[in-house]
Amino acid sequence: MNNNVTRRQALLAGAAVAAGSLSPRLGNSESPNQSQSHENSVDRNKAITANSKFSNYSRYRPSFGGPPDSDEYLGKLVPGLRKSGLEAVPFEAPDLDKLPWKMVNGVKEFELRCTPVKREFLPGKYMNVWGFNNSMPGPTIEVVQGDRIRIIVHNELPEPTSVHWHGLELPVEFDGVPGVTQHMIHPGKSKVYEYDLHQTGTFFYHSHLPMQEAFGMVGFLIIHPRVAFDPPVDRDFGLIFQNFFIPPNSDTADSMRMDWNWHTINGRSGPYTTPMVCKHGERVRVRLLDFSPMQHHPIHFHGHTFWLTGTEGGRIPTSAWIPRNTTLTAVAMAQDFEFIAFNPGDWIFHCHMVHHMMNHMVPQVGPRIRGEQTIDEYLNSLPNRPAVDSKLEKPLFNVPGYPQKMQGMSMSQDALSKINGKREARGMRDKWHMGVKGLMTVIRVLPEELYHRVMHSDEKIAPGEIFEAIAKGKYSTYSSS
Ligand SMILES: [Cu+2]
Hints:
- It is a single chain.
- This protein has helices at 7-19, 41-50, 210-214, 375-380, 413-420, 448-455, 465-471; strands at residues 101-104, 107-122, 125-132, 141-144, 148-155, 163-166, 190-196, 201-207, 218-224, 235-244, 262-265, 276-279, 283-290, 297-301, 306-311, 314-315, 322-324, 326-329, 334-340, 345-351, 440-446.
- By secondary structure, the chain is an alpha+beta fold.
- The protein is globular, with a radius of gyration of 24 Å.
- The site of copper (II) ion has 6 residues, from loops.
């Protein structure tokens, strides 16, 4: 422990001992495990000095921190490795772009085009939805508190539309509600929205016509404070959760249905969702937005405890932060949470509703019950369609309910290489994609050296190599050898 221990820290430390540490290995110090001798130890020691206030909590090992009322309990106010007092770290929404802007007489000016979109939900599966600037969800508008913004909306859809800026306190004439605050923007026409931003938080924009919303017309609108909140985070990720109904053998979303068989995070279904990658010991923020037509999502993260720090209404006072590992996000709600990435590995991050944990939870109709064919085989020989097997006598149907193993779920080598070919997925286990479906993605917590190899080097990394190095090797925070 640091020599300059304050009375408060000593009391907290005493309380932790009095409460009985469950294990001598459960966080009693910021110092790295003696067995961990990799290159990062120098950086770690720097961080330890900087964070000596949090002497009961380790950002690198399992650590409970002090008692529940303390600032370090479950890493609550433990800062990231980034300094305080800087501007916010850039926001990252995997698989989505940012909307570019130009400064025009002191106003940040954006051009937003409402467009039909062909979005690749899974490799090769291009679905007809609607969005903005040929993306569904649309590109992120990332701005700063105090900015004045001008958004020129062009309607390139075949029907009228109107865009609403969800959660913003703005002049009523720019609220984007057809009829109530403005006329429709007709096809081929444009409308200018312009206002000052005095809030901070996780906001979004969307069409204010319900069927267009169900077609996917949404995008993030992130307003950072001028100076990043304390404790500073090192990463700021955002994910939009959506459900669509796309009939079997169709590639066009049906917004009239109230049943859902395709599930997307930032417009991709697992395992095509790009993993979020962070470094061991960082403080990470994730912003969740549910823009499904009707259903809520209990979003669960493995291996860590996070603090709920914000909602669609903005930042929550620290006294009201809630520790969770699952947070329920209802339609049109946002949840921001933060955690210290103390636990290296590839951690699944997913909606816990079983019908959202894979696509196609629909009745057994269509190609799936036509003999033993996969969908690809079926589509490749349409003239020779096998008869529908309605007796359900195949072994596949010998279990009650709905079996996990279905026909037509296998993926081609091309599809797999699109998934595994991403830099962010390098070194994950060979079959990782088998466990990531529907509303599922992965957060990878990588020790500095492994992070560099995955994200910045071009050296070849074998499937499973990074995972094994953590699970069995010198990077494990749990191994004692
Ligand atoms: Cu869900």
